Amino acid sequence: MPKPSPSSRWPQALDESKSQIDLFDSSKERKTYENLADLYTIITATEHLERAYAQDAITQSEYTAECNKLISQFKIAEKAALGSDGMTTEDFIKIYQMDCPRAADRLLRMGVPEPVKRSDGSGNVAITVAETVQHFITAMDAVKLDQRAVDELQPLLSDLMNALIQLPDTPNDFGPNYKVQKWLQKLNAMRAVDMIDEDDGRQLYHDLDTAYSEFSRYLKSK
Length: 222
Known about the structure:
There is one protein chain. The protein is mainly alpha-helical. 65% of the residues lie in helices and 0% in strands. It has 9 helices and no strands.
């Protein structure tokens, strides 16, 4: 019986030059994986942020700043990762079995950080009012100029909603908040590459105009 050679008795070192595994076949495919990873990371980070805030592990100002940043990054990442292939973020979450109910609610339904109203003594109310007026005008001008893409309109309404919820002493059923939130939820349910149609554009402008009028009446009554 022939003796086994020394080389057959011991494990051989891995020849990396012959066993390299390619995860992608082209730079385009590599970019696709990177974009999907970015979207996954943003959703996961939002989930952790929401949990940290619920556990009182971070301050209100820290939460608001980070949440606004993640919401802004989300639509950009969603557009890059999902593009126009028909996949939605809900599909993405299911495919990759992500456990992220808080992130899904914040990014896909609410579109703004958890609202906390200021009291009259915290912050300059006049500045908040001026910022709210400016956000109203900016959003209405965008719609009037026929901007219809979700990734164009959603940030404008998000900024407006953020300003509205900072106003002190507004009632819980404040009409402008309801109207803007309704449109935010509609846009957040769409993909960044989607467009609202002409009828929706006209309705959005009408709702913003009536919300601004109600906001102005509220200011005059104070």
